[in-house]
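User: We ran a pulldown and think these components assemble together. Before we commit to crystallization trials, I'd like a predicted model of the whole complex to look at. Sequences follow.
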Amino acid sequence: MVVRRPPQAATNTTITSAQTFNAHTKKGTRNVIESGGVGDDDDDVLTNLVEPLWPEDLKHLPYTFNRVSAEESIKMSREFYDKMNERRTIRFFSPDPVPREVIENIIKVAGTAPSGAHTEPWTFVAVCDPEVKQQIRAVVEMEEETNYAKRMGNQWVKDLKFLRTDCVKEYLTMAPWLLLVFKQTYGMLPDGRKRNHYYHEISTAIAGGILLCAIQTAGLATLTSTPLNCGPAIRGILQRPPNEKLLLLMPVGYPAPDATVPDLTRKPLEELMVTV
Amino acid sequence: MVVRRPPQAATNTTITSAQTFNAHTKKGTRNVIESGGVGDDDDDVLTNLVEPLWPEDLKHLPYTFNRVSAEESIKMSREFYDKMNERRTIRFFSPDPVPREVIENIIKVAGTAPSGAHTEPWTFVAVCDPEVKQQIRAVVEMEEETNYAKRMGNQWVKDLKFLRTDCVKEYLTMAPWLLLVFKQTYGMLPDGRKRNHYYHEISTAIAGGILLCAIQTAGLATLTSTPLNCGPAIRGILQRPPNEKLLLLMPVGYPAPDATVPDLTRKPLEELMVTV
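Assistant: Here's a predicted model for the assembly, 552 residues in total across the polymer chains.
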């Protein structure tokens, strides 16, 4: 089933009869849904009722599903595990270029993620401009110095020691692409009013997990980073609007030929899974 | 590269010389890393320094990477998009059984997710017992009645109307499996002290996204739900410890032959992606 978005939804022109009401959502009653589930300081609770993004009488269609046999299902799930289990977080990248079409395809995959009320509260910024990569690296390295020295505390520094990382982030200029995953904490209507983006952080992180699968499936490598305190500066560099907040920063490319990874292991199934 | 976890890490017996210090993390200085990035009320900031989960002098090994051609990469990324783009959230399930091995494989895939300081802060509970499924359904339906009537507000009810959902959740007993994704807000040492689980919510949601890819790749269907206010009761039913909090509840199985989906579309690439 090919899913296509009608032009009117894409451009928000369905919002023709939006009216302002006093909704019964108040600051004092904000909850996990209204705030997106993240507890951000500037998560607003929106108090004006607006038209829904999707028409209330939206048609429902039969779902076409091609069912495979149990044997085939076992085989496919095992093969996908083998492929995903090869993934490691990479900190040493080759500068070799990656085709733009691959980057576009992996972002399209991330865009298939589910989201609260199908609000699709995410934006993916793909940076290949060397100067912009350098600016982003400068921001991250400056913040990381403070993070290591002051913000993070002794336990964090101790818990990260096995990674042998420091404030120098060469991969941010070496990798051919930087993918920046922004969550949209709210949506904007053409008339300037805000729209709730339910569960925006969880939804965007789920899209980030799907992005990781797409990167691995395309034969590329990445590093999943959460650039603490870098969001506002990077948003400025990329000229993103105030409703977008940086969630993940991921260099994407091929590993350097001499890339190393810590000799880590993963939890075995019996620690991961409980059957009831 | 096959990743294996050494037995001592799996059983936490590496913690042999743990000592108690006054760390400089205090309630007043808690930040996104220490709290897991979720702003939960009961996210503790841990004030005692403990031994790291992974030894500080952990070996680093060469990363074996099989590089594919640009053409192959384009082809694989396009095929993976086609597969993932077929995924839809399903609310009508067939009771047909799904092999346990498939469920184990998809949870193993989710367990390949990255996490802050490789703390792997997640537990996946797979429920196939009909009575337990019924108990979970009863909790969800009771809370959903309150959610629709009071908690969620007019805008939420309006924004969800196109889905044609209500408080009756037949899929929770119809689907052969319920997968419950718990985030571990902190870790437990054998001596009862707590260990920081950095970025536990984002990490677990990313694992949830990888789980979605695994479900789709295995030829199965699911519904990604965030059961508002049901966490404590469901944790009780499943006898999970207090450091585990429910993040996602996902019925897994085959769609019913007459399953329908709303006639939704997804953002096109030009709304999803910005290139710099």
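The longest strand of chain B covers residues 244-253. That may be worth checking against your pulldown data before setting up trials.

User: Thanks, that helps.
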